[in-house]
Design goal:
The complex is a heterodimer of chains A (about 775) and B (about 220). Chain A has 3 domains: about 140 residues, no CATH class; about 260 residues, no CATH class; about 170 residues, no CATH class. In chain A, about 65% of the residues lie in helices and about 10% in strands. Chain A contains 23 helices and 18 strands. In chain A, the strands form 2 sheets. In chain A, strands 9, 10, 11, 12, 13, 14, 15, 16, 17 and 18 form a 10-stranded mixed β-sheet that branches. In chain A, strand 14 and strand 15 form a beta hairpin. Chain B is α/β, with parallel strands linked by helices. The chains are: A alpha+beta (about 775), B alpha/beta (about 220). The interface between A and B is medium-sized, with 31 and 37 residues.
């Protein structure tokens, strides 16, 4: 019996292959983008974990050269002889692989490669298989999969031989130190102590990037599920008659419910599996760009090769099945409650959906009210995401009712019978198209929101680079003598100099970097503030106030007018809070004399220099002060490099934008195609009244464009609200800074045009099919009315 | 006795309260007998037929079909009863649009576990559907679709065939033809037939006629 019943159920898909395709494709697309993004995130996180397991650098204090260059071996020896318990480390690059050389006997760092119990092999490198292949012929490599991607660990002597490195890169300060050790300044004045925890945590730094990707994946999943929901709804309504007939001829309700559920979930599994494969392809295509972005922006090494990890493909399958089950549950419930004698009206589902408009609208009002409350009193990341969710879902639920009102207005203003019919008929199509239109609304508003956020970030970031990289040259010195000599040279040339002294410490319980600066025109003209008091720079210059960055202000709740305690004897009022988009740590900026009273032994280790002849000055500094070329940095190059890396981030975002919009366009196409058969009985009377099939086809096209236009008008304010929440609430809660919001009307105009084109393209095929509908098929509508 | 209705009552409810449709209907139908049930719209004809088919339950009274007490059966038992003991022919045909004519006819027999290709071939031939077996219902005329519905109903060898306005959607000539074929097949298979109809012509072709008025047999 069940076999015969299943045969009847499955015959529906054979007769409606477009609907089957819509169902499978909706699930595949939803799963693809979600699992693709999850695959990328998973690969990145595994890479971070592997790197952390290989070399937990951040756990220990470190000594680095103030000049940013190598530490001479003699300095290391001097430190050891004076009692400093330090362990050396060399970093170098060979064939694009990061070689890390450590002293196996003294290193405090969890080597990760000694866990095998094997004796350390001094002439071997340790790397994962992919990296080992790249190092073939360089040195013997022992494969150890726990070593992070694109790095190899070895004895310091081996790495020094392989790379030809002249000095040490850094020294790890061991946890147990003799009480009597001398001050660092006395033994190695060219070195600076970098306390543990001051190094950026890669996971924390990259969270924003992964959050962005996850948000896109989730959004695409939601848009894909709209297609699935819409197709399931249509398939159930079209099979309502079949279900009634099957029950009337003796198929028990429970068996029918089990069969329908099994059939739909099996198909969902097929669609989701296709999606996982598609997701793998998307992830594999995007991963090189993502890896380059993460390496460039955060210095995070991510393997460029994607692995099929169960954590993402299983989660993709599970989420797809859960989403389908959620969409299915309501329909199954309807079937279970449907009286066997219920009428099988062919348009019953449209009428039922129309009745749901009222419930939807009530839900929309409730959600938007909750969003209003969260906007007014919400605080923290959870509240920000809840606000986003309420806003997006509320607006999507409100769309059909809103569009119906607009179309009703247009119908009343229409002149001529065709125009009146057009708007009235468009309104009648709303229930059938509402899910696709809601998907388009989400896609377009997300595009507006995310592109506004990213473009605002781009403008702010560029301004920030201009602010921080205003000096044409940036010079690091290694000793007090070099510092004095450089200052003398620059003063003699009458150049504007921005000497910088800095120390890592803790302020208000937070790890911060304290900077001592000489306030000059460059600071006054370039620095942009989140909040600033009157005569701010004058007060800082006079030593009567300090500037803090936004991260510290938010974390320690220190704002303009509050006092920041820098030592037991010194607490300065805060004159300004500066926007800082380059690091996760807090900063305090004071005038050089104030800094000197706090840290009398310190001296300017870095200099920003304003010059119109950077090349000539570079040569002069090298000749006169004796600094190496590596100590002098051309800021323009850094800026170009930073922007280049930043653009690659946008490439990933742009690809996801296009994919999300594509999915929404596909949702419209599938809705129009699946509705096409239902349209014939509606259009046949109009055709009989004298409109040609060609005209009807064109009107169908115009209808899709008109609806997309209405959606775009609704999506614009929603997208801007989304951008505001992302910039002012999510960013603040997640990353500690607020970004100013800029508007990009031209971009929105283009996006609107794309949305209309996507709708027109989606409607083109159904319209063309309508134009070619044989008159006999239209006549049959009347024949069936007998 | 194949079908027995004893003091059957049934009401529907709306905002104004209960609306009685059947007020104590009693009648019997023997195996091989044909019966027409007539009455005005809303007189309870279709309700009575749905109760006989086990699609609806009476509020009171007793209903027995082929030895089954329908009022004592649960949903699963009623479904099994519908598969094996009765068959329905509707005014709107209610064919499954995604199955071919042949598959539609085979469906009920397969569900009943009584798949008999030879019988199905005989029905197809007798009803003039041979050339349409591989077509889908939408390609057939109304009369042809009703013939498919009759073939589907009889393919499962039911003891009782229930037809609700089976010719209501057909023109007079086609209606005559369909009715003729249905009566001939019923006689051949030995099933009993109860037809709900407005048509005096259809009613006149049955062994007996019952008229419902105000929820009571007149």
């Amino acid at each position: 019996m069940m076999r015969a019943c299943l045969g009847a159920l499955v015959s529906h898909w054979r007769r409606n292959p477009v609907q089957l395709f819509a169902y499978l494709a909706g699930l595949a697309l939803a799963t693809a983008l979600w699992s693709g993004v999850q695959a990328i995130n998973s690969e990145a996180r595994n890479s971070y974990d592997a790197a952390a397991a290989t070399l937990s650098e951040g756990q220990y204090d470190q000594l680095v050269a103030r000049s940013g260059g190598a530490i001479p071996l003699a300095t290391y020896v001097a430190l050891r002889r004076s009692g400093w318990m330090v362990s050396p480390m060399i970093e170098a690059e060979v064939r694009g692989v990061r070689l890390i050389g450590v002293d196996p006997l003294t290193t405090p760092v969890s080597f990760g490669v000694g866990d095998t119990g094997a004796a350390p092999e001094l002439d071997h490198l340790f790397a994962n298989a992919a990296t080992a292949r790249r190092l073939a012929g360089v040195a013997p490599v022992t494969v150890q999969e726990t070593v992070g991607p694109n790095m190899a660990i070895g004895d310091i002597g081996l790495v020094q031989r392989l790379s030809g490195a002249a000095g040490l890169t850094r020294l790890f300060v061991l946890p147990d130190q003799p009480v009597t050790r001398p001050a660092l300044q006395d033994v190695a004045p060219g070195l600076a102590l970098q306390p543990s925890g001051q190094q950026a945590d890669i996971g924390q730094l990259t969270d924003s990037f992964h959050l962005n990707l996850t948000a896109f994946g989730l959004l695409s999943f939601a848009v894909g599920l709209f297609i699935v929901h819409s197709t399931i709804g249509l398939a159930f309504e079209q099979r309502r008659g079949m279900i009634r007939t099957l029950r009337s001829i003796g198929v028990p309700l429970r068996g029918l419910v089990v069969l329908i559920t099994a059939e739909m979930l099996f198909l969902a599994l097929v669609g989701a599996a296709l999606g996982v494969v598609l997701g793998y392809v998307i992830a594999a295509l995007l991963l090189p760009d993502v890896a380059a972005t993460l390496r460039g922006l955060y210095g995070a090494e991510v393997s460029g090769t994607l692995q099929l990890r169960a954590e993402w493909w299983l989660s993709g399958l599970a989420l797809a099945l859960l989403g389908t089950a959620a969409a299915l549950a309501g329909r199954i419930w309807q079937v279970a409650r449907m009286p066997v004698l219920a009428s099988a009206r062919p348009r019953a589902w449209v009428m039922a959906t129309a009745a749901r408009f009222r419930v939807q609208s009530a839900g929309a009002v409730a959600l938007l009210a909750v969003a209003g409350v969260l906007f007014a009193v919400g605080d923290g990341l959870l509240a920000a995401f809840a606000l986003l969710g309420c806003l997006l879902i509320g607006a999507a639920l409100a769309l059909p009712a809103l569009a119906a009102m607009v179309l009703s207005g247009l119908q009343h203003r229409a002149r001529g019978p065709v125009a009146m019919w057009f708007w009235a008929d468009t309104r009648q199509q709303l229930p059938g198209l509402s899910l696709a239109l809601m998907a388009l609304l989400l896609a377009v508003s997300a595009n507006i929101g995310v592109s506004t956020m990213v473009s605002s970030f781009r403008l702010t970031f560029v301004a920030f680079l201009d602010q921080r990289l205003a000096p044409e040259l940036f010079v690091r010195v290694g000793s007090k003598n070099e510092s004095a000599a450089l200052r003398q040279l620059l003063d003699a040339r009458g150049l504007e100099v921005l000497p910088l002294m800095s120390t890592s410490t803790r302020v208000a319980g937070q790890p911060v970097q304290v900077y001592g600066i000489e306030v000059g025109p460059t600071y006054r003209e370039n620095w942009a503030f989140v909040d600033a008091g009157a005569d701010m720079w004058d007060r800082v210059q006079a030593g009567a106030a300090a500037v803090v960055n936004e991260q510290l202000a938010r974390r320690a709740n220190l704002w303009v007018g509050d006092r920041v305690t820098l030592s037991p004897d010194l607490a300065l009022p805060i004159a300004g809070v500066v926007g800082d988009y380059g690091n996760p740590l807090g900063q305090v900026v004071v005038a050089a004399p104030v800094y000197a009273t706090l840290y009398p032994d310190d001296y300017p280790g870095q200099f920003g220099i304003r010059t119109s002849t950077p090349d000539a000055l570079r040569r002069a500094i090298m000749d006169s002060v004796g600094l190496p070329d590596s100590a002098i940095i051309d800021q323009a190059e850094i800026k170009a490099l930073s922007l280049g890396v930043f653009e690659r981030t946008f490439t990933v975002t742009a690809v996801l934008n296009v994919l999300t919009l594509g999915v929404a366009g596909f949702a419209i196409l599938m809705s129009l195609l699946t509705l096409a058969d239902l349209r014939v009985p509606q259009l046949a009377p109009v055709w009989a009244l004298g409109l040609t099939r060609r005209t009807l086809g064109r009107l169908e096209l115009a209808r899709a464009v008109a609806l997309a236009g209405i959606v775009f008008v609704c999506a614009l304010p929603l997208g801007l609200a989304l951008a505001w929440v992302l910039l002012s609430r999510v960013n603040v809660a997640a990353f500690g800074w607020q970004l100013p919001m800029f508007l990009f009307p031209a971009d929105y105009g283009w996006l609107g045009a794309y949305a209309l084109v996507a709708a027109a393209l989606a409607a083109a095929w159904p319209a063309w099919r309508l134009m070619r509908t044989p008159p006999a098929r239209l006549l049959k509508v009347f024949a069936h009315e007998r | 006795m194949l079908l027995e209705f004893q003091s059957v009552t049934k009401s529907f409810h709306d905002a104004d309260g209960a609306i009685p449709v059947l007020r104590g209907v009693s009648f019997e139908l023997r195996a091989g007998e044909t019966l027409a049930l007539t009455g005005e719209s809303g007189s309870g004809k279709s309700t009575l037929m749905h109760i006989a088919a086990g699609l609806d339950a009476p509020d009171g009274g007793a209903v027995r079909v082929a030895g089954h007490d329908l009022t004592a059966m649960n949903d699963a038992a009623l479904a099994a009863f519908r598969r094996t003991e009765v068959a329905l022919v509707f005014q709107q045909f209610n064919l499954i649009p995604s199955l071919t004519v042949g598959a539609n006819i085979a469906l009920q027999a397969a569900l009943a576990g009584a798949d008999d290709p030879a019988r199905q071939e005989m029905l197809v031939a007798r009803l003039g559907l041979t050339e349409h077996v591989h077509k889908f219902p939408e390609a057939l005329s109304g009369g042809q679709q009703q013939r498919v519905a009759i073939a589907r109903a009889l393919a499962a060898k039911p003891k009782l065939l229930l037809a609700d306005e089976p010719t209501g959607n057909l023109d007079e000539a086609t209606a005559d033809q369909v009715l003729e074929q249905m009566l001939a097949l019923v006689a051949q298979t030995g099933a009993a037939l109860m037809v709900v109809t407005h048509s005096p012509t259809v009613a006149a072709r049955m062994d007996r006629v019952l008229h419902l008025r105000g929820g009571l047999l007149a």
